[in-house]
Amino acid sequence: MDKFVIRGGNPLLGTIKVSGAKNSALPCMAAAILTEDEVILENIPQVNDIETERKLLTSMGAEVELGYGRAQHRTRIKCAILSDPVAKYEIVKTMRASSLVLGPLIARTGIARVAMPGGCAIGGRPIDLHINGLEAMGATITQDHGYLEARADRLKGAHIVFDKITVTGTEDLLMAATLAEGESIFENCAREPEVTDLAALLIAMGAKIEGAGTGTIRIQGVSKLHGARHRINPDRIEAGTFLIAGAITGGDLNVDCCEPKHLGALITKLEQCGVKIDVGTDHVRVRSGGELKAADITTEEYPGFPTDMQAQYMALATQAEGTSTVIENIFENRYMHVQELIRMGANITISGRTATVRGKTPLQSAAVMCSDLRASASLVLAALVADGETILDRIYHLDRGYEHFEEKLRGVGAQIRRMGDVFGRK
C-alpha cells in the first residue's frame, strides 16, 4: 500500500496545471450509454475513478478506449451493444458514481441492475432521490441483495421537485429524461458546473435541455441521441486545493488551466484570510499577503463554499491567526481528517456539524492515515508546513481523484515522494 513522505517548510513557487474534472468526466462517460454512436471526451483526468468507470462500461458490453501518448487525456466510448446492463458490485464498490448509470441504462435499454454505490465514507448520499424520480417517470424499481433493478418500456416525462439539492440525482434523472416521452420539468436542481458540463454534452448529442445551471431544468425528450465530441471542464476542486497549497506555504503559485468563475466562493474566502489573489481568464495566482487571518466558512451547494474544499480549508485555518468556525452542512461525517490534524498539533474541537479551529498552531510531522479523498488532500497541505517528515498512509483515496498529485507539487518546490511497499508502486 503506497504512502506519501512529505518534508514541510518549502514555499510553493511557479506554475501548476489543473486537470479535467473527475466529477464531470464520470457522468459524461455514463452519458455515452444513451447512444449507439461514438462519444469522444477530451481533458479526461488520469485517476483511478476513471479506470473504474472504464471497467464498468466495458463489463456492460461497451467499447472504451482510454487514450495514450499525445491523446492520453482522451477517451472514446461506443455503446453500440449493451449486452449486460448490470453495474456489478465488485467493480463499483469503491466509487459512489455508480448510481449515475441507473438513469441512462433504463432510458436506453428498458432495464438496469445497479449495485448500491460505494466510495468515501463521508456520510449518506441517499439514492432514494434517484429512485423516486425514476418511479415518477414510470419505472418499476425493486431492491434485493444489494442491487437495484429498474424496468420500463419507455420512461415518461414528469414534473419532479427534489426534496433536497442533489448533484448525482440531478445528473442521473437529467440523462434519463433526454430519452423519455414528453417533457420533464425538474425543480430544486443542483447548479454545480459539473451539471452544466453534462448538459452541454447531452445537447451536443441532440438532447433538448433548457435551464442547466439554474434551479429549474426543462427537458423535451427525443427518440434517439447521436455521438458527439466534448471537452471536460477543469477540476475546480483540484484548482482550489492548489490555491490553498500556495497560500498555506506562503508561496507564489500560478494555478493554470482552470476556470476562475467556478472558484468564486473560495477566492473570496482566501482574500478574507489576507491572501493576495490575481485572477486571469484561465488562471489564478495566489501570493502571500503576510500572516494569514482567521475566517469562518459554511459549506453550501454551489455557488456556495464547496463541501469538497472544507477539509483543505481547515488545514489552512490551523495556520491563521485567530479562531475560525467551520460548519459542514452537506455531509454528516466529513470531519474524519480532524483527529489526524490534531495528531500533527492542530487545535480543533467539534460540536455536531461545527468545528472550531484555533490558530496559529505550529504543526509537527507525524504518521497519519487518509480516510477519504478530500481528507487526504488536507493532510498533504498540513504536511507541507509541518516541521519534519510526515508519512501519509492509505493514499489510494487520493489517487481516486487527483492526477499525478505528488508530481505536480514536486514541480513547484514541494518535498514529496511516493513510497510503495514490496507490492506497491515505487
From TrEMBL:
<dbReference type="InterPro" id="IPR005750">
    <property type="entry name" value="UDP_GlcNAc_COvinyl_MurA"/>
</dbReference>
<comment type="similarity">
    <text>Belongs to the EPSP synthase family. MurA subfamily.</text>
</comment>
<keyword id="KW-0670">Pyruvate</keyword>
<feature type="binding site">
    <location>
        <position position="330"/>
    </location>
    <ligand>
        <name>UDP-N-acetyl-alpha-D-glucosamine</name>
    </ligand>
</feature>
<feature type="binding site">
    <location>
        <position position="96"/>
    </location>
    <ligand>
        <name>UDP-N-acetyl-alpha-D-glucosamine</name>
    </ligand>
</feature>
<dbReference type="GO" id="GO:0008760">
    <property type="term" value="F:UDP-N-acetylglucosamine 1-carboxyvinyltransferase activity"/>
</dbReference>
<keyword id="KW-0961">Cell wall biogenesis/degradation</keyword>
<dbReference type="GO" id="GO:0071555">
    <property type="term" value="P:cell wall organization"/>
</dbReference>
<keyword id="KW-0573">Peptidoglycan synthesis</keyword>
<protein>
    <recommendedName>
        <fullName>UDP-N-acetylglucosamine 1-carboxyvinyltransferase</fullName>
        <ecNumber>2.5.1.7</ecNumber>
    </recommendedName>
</protein>
<feature type="binding site">
    <location>
        <begin position="125"/>
        <end position="129"/>
    </location>
    <ligand>
        <name>UDP-N-acetyl-alpha-D-glucosamine</name>
    </ligand>
</feature>
<keyword id="KW-0132">Cell division</keyword>
<dbReference type="InterPro" id="IPR001986">
    <property type="entry name" value="Enolpyruvate_Tfrase_dom"/>
</dbReference>
<dbReference type="GO" id="GO:0051301">
    <property type="term" value="P:cell division"/>
</dbReference>
<feature type="modified residue" description="2-(S-cysteinyl)pyruvic acid O-phosphothioketal">
    <location>
        <position position="120"/>
    </location>
</feature>
<feature type="domain" description="Enolpyruvate transferase">
    <location>
        <begin position="7"/>
        <end position="409"/>
    </location>
</feature>
<comment type="function">
    <text>Cell wall formation. Adds enolpyruvyl to UDP-N-acetylglucosamine.</text>
</comment>
<dbReference type="Pfam" id="PF00275">
    <property type="entry name" value="EPSP_synthase"/>
</dbReference>
<dbReference type="GO" id="GO:0019277">
    <property type="term" value="P:UDP-N-acetylgalactosamine biosynthetic process"/>
</dbReference>
<keyword id="KW-0808">Transferase</keyword>
<dbReference type="GO" id="GO:0009252">
    <property type="term" value="P:peptidoglycan biosynthetic process"/>
</dbReference>
<dbReference type="GO" id="GO:0008360">
    <property type="term" value="P:regulation of cell shape"/>
</dbReference>
<dbReference type="InterPro" id="IPR036968">
    <property type="entry name" value="Enolpyruvate_Tfrase_sf"/>
</dbReference>
<keyword id="KW-0963">Cytoplasm</keyword>
<dbReference type="InterPro" id="IPR013792">
    <property type="entry name" value="RNA3'P_cycl/enolpyr_Trfase_a/b"/>
</dbReference>
<feature type="active site" description="Proton donor">
    <location>
        <position position="120"/>
    </location>
</feature>
<feature type="binding site">
    <location>
        <begin position="22"/>
        <end position="23"/>
    </location>
    <ligand>
        <name>phosphoenolpyruvate</name>
    </ligand>
</feature>
<dbReference type="GO" id="GO:0005737">
    <property type="term" value="C:cytoplasm"/>
</dbReference>
<feature type="binding site">
    <location>
        <position position="308"/>
    </location>
    <ligand>
        <name>UDP-N-acetyl-alpha-D-glucosamine</name>
    </ligand>
</feature>
<keyword id="KW-0131">Cell cycle</keyword>
<dbReference type="InterPro" id="IPR050068">
    <property type="entry name" value="MurA_subfamily"/>
</dbReference>
<keyword id="KW-0133">Cell shape</keyword>
<comment type="pathway">
    <text>Cell wall biogenesis; peptidoglycan biosynthesis.</text>
</comment>
